[in-house]
Amino acid sequence: MNKIIGFVVIALFLLSWGVTGHRTVGKIAEKHLTPAATAAVRELLGSETLADVSTWADEVRGKPEYKQTGSWHYVNLPMGLSFPEFQKSVEGMSEDNVYSALEKLEKEVVDPATPREKKVEALKFIVHFVGDLHQPMHVSKAEDKGGNTVQLNFNGSGTNLHAVWDSKLIDRLGLGYEQLASTVDHATPAQISQWQKDPMIRWMWESYEVTEKLYAEVDAMKSRAIDDKYYEEHIGTVEQRLEQAGIRLAGVLNHLFAHGVVVGPAAPASAAQAEGAAVKVDLADAQAHVGENVVVTAKVYGYKALEGLTLVNLGAAYPNQVMTVVLRGEAMAIAGQIDGKTIRVTGKVEMYKGKPEIIVRDPKLIAVP
Questions:
Q1: Quick one: 289 exposed, middle or buried, by C-beta within 10 A (0-12, 13-18, 19+)?
Q2: Torsion angle, CA of 197/203/209/210, rounded to 10 degrees?
Q3: What average pLDDT does the segment 338-360 reach?
Q4: Is 61 in contact with 55 (CB distance < 8 Å)?
Q5: Which of the 8 DSSP states describes residue 268?
Q6: Distances (CA, A) of 166 to 162, 261, 321
């Protein structure tokens, strides 16, 4: 299973703030929600937290049904713009970008006509994209793909400018997201008030200004090698952007959910009801039921725990597994209990890298017959 796990880890850490950064933003936001917003988030996400869902938008962007969301994570602009020019360019863009996506998603999540499932997705996207807007290299140039083609050497290892700001500087801190959130979340009431009053275009302008400086530094380098001096000069900016993102995310959700949230019919109240509404299928036929709620019975052949998810093999050991069950949230705790056993799992079939998978968050949706 090492190859597929390696791919998952690389994919997560090369996108946006990376796992630690995005979860830090979500964790900070949780501490600044109003009671009404807290209740609304719980209504939509259940047992999952803002930190839990903060990387979801990166996890699904490679799936065919979410292909159109790729451009929602960033905005590309030429350098050297004044603020009025910057604002006019962003607000006048016809192509999809993170600014237009956030405006659309904020409307969706409060619209009473939006189906519950779409509201949940909109919330997850909002959590992620507010974080993206505060990562400077997500407001940068198209010609180098947001710094992805600007090659650097960081402490002896090859990398690029985008990756340095996504995760390399954060990783250098050596802190988990909860520790990092606690460390950087120290804004004064005045700062919190001001940051939450700032419009979205201002958040983006702040990232743009940082990006211009980063490009100028690279252009001035005699070599493309950076070290701990670079880290020491820039980690303060990273920490501030994470803190601002968390504070502002809370502000967005407090505003959107000031009067609660209107949702459609709730999911089935019990595992028995969920299973009763599902179609029983053979493991070998699961791929023919993508998008359907099914019940599959099969033997578990090992599992692998990652940060925020656990991958369980059904039908055979990796790399010959017939299906993967992705355990998230509370369901992650049962991985050891089901290893080597025949289980009955209920959930919607999705495809990932050519193989079917079922994502399970409620442990009651997995049973040992």
A1: middle
A2: 110
A3: 91
A4: no
A5: P
A6: 6, 32, 32
Query: For 271-367, CATH number?
Result: 2.40.50.140
Question: What are φ and ψ of residue 225, in 5° steps?
Answer: -95, 130
**Where, residue-wise, is CATH 1.10.575.10 in the chain?**
2-256
Can you list the positions of beta strands (E) in 51-93? 75-76
Residues 254 and 6: their CA atoms lie apart, in Å, by: 37
Instruction: Fill in the amino acid letter for 296.
Output: V
pLDDT of residue 15: 47
Q: Would you say residue 250 has pLDDT above 80?
A: yes
Look at the block and give the residue holding tokens 């252009």.
219
- Measured CA to CA in angstroms, residue 367 lies from 140, 310, 327 at distances of 48, 17, 13
Write the CATH number of the domain with boundaries 2-256: 1.10.575.10
CB of 349 closer than 8 Å to CB of 63: no
Q: Are 151 and 160 in contact (CB under 8 A)?
A: yes
Determine the Cα–Cα distance for residues 288 and 229; give it in Å rounded to an integer: 54
pTM of the model: 0.70
**Prior bond of 35 cis (ω within 30°):** no
- CA pair distance 228, 140, nearest whole angstrom: 24
pLDDT attached to residue 267: 47
Give ranges for CATH 2.40.50.140 in the chain.
271-367
State the chain's mean pLDDT as an integer. 89
Q: Distance (Å, rounded) from C-alpha 308 to C-alpha 20? A: 10
Closest CA to 103 of 199, 244, 4, 1: 199
Answer yes or no: are the C-beta atoms of 361 and 44 closer than 8 Å. no
Q: Say yes or no to pLDDT of 272 above 80.
A: no
* Residue type at 132 in one-letter notation: D
